[in-house]
């Protein structure tokens, strides 16, 4: 690695009472009419109330709340929210939720800043040329890392593809990490989003564009996830462990947005678009199978990851020549534990939502996905199909 770039200008506000700082962040940017973008689950869990209380105590009103973002957001949703933003003369966006509300809000910010109704024309990398409207994110899951990334994915439901957007202008102004926002996360979402963050970290540490700074964030995130995901599965109201998971997710987001990802994400994007499965689950499904496929290309970095994955005792006891395989075994055990705890599927067959006849189509979409460019081992259509076959179960 003779040359690399590392960029993360997002202000991180983390810890107890982090929410109470949100009104100040908007007022310091001269914003008076913020719009909240969220989903029904956030409102039903009472999380929106905590944010609105913070606004009230901070002496600021929320102009409009859009709480109808679907789990797999689409072009139509983005268009509807942008219309609402314009009609209410809003001047800033606050996204509250997991990956879907955050990615949706990023896309809305593109439309209200750049103009137009069709978000598809802004897809790709480097299309945006100027700063967007003020934008703050409060994540309610510890997995996507979207609060610190310059990318978003929106579904084109008519074409059954995921539209990818990438630009440093999409980065939020601030990410607010408050453990109160993840305490009510159900076990299966806790598990899936935890594995999402793990995948971000592992792919960041092993893909072609890795660098020393992304490595530092990725390995630190893996250590936090390995230590704290079992804790929050056993004791969901452990605020300290929840904060550790939320911070790990943010760190993983910083890592992969600077190092890129690989075949796990290419497969996951394709599976999600065709079979409508949650992104975190897709990541968990493919992670060990892709690591096995990439093994001889990533043996050294994967061996290093055994230390944050399994701890110093297992690392020291494992012969150097076997550490890469032991890292994969540790991830497999983690998935087995999550299956035991909340039935998080480990194979495509266990999801009950994938038909084997769809594998060829998923493989074709995988080869066309941009994430595959940074995978450490080149993958053909036949290779992608072979990995899918192994992941079938």
Q: What does this protein structure show overall?
A:
The chain has 393 residues and is an alpha/beta fold. It is built from 16 helices and nine strands. It has helices at residues 22-27, 40-44, 47-57, 75-87, 99-114, 187-206, 212-234, 239-259, 263-275, 279-304, 306-310, 312-317, 323-342, 348-351, 359-367, 381-392; strands at 11-14, 34-37, 64-66, 92-97, 124-125, 135-139, 151-156, 161-166, 174-177. The strands form two sheets. Strands 1-9-6-4-2-3 form a six-stranded parallel beta sheet. The protein has a three-stranded mixed beta sheet with strand order 5-8-7. The protein starts with 10 loop residues before the first strand and ends with a helix. 55% of the residues are buried. The model has no long low-confidence stretch (mean pLDDT 96).
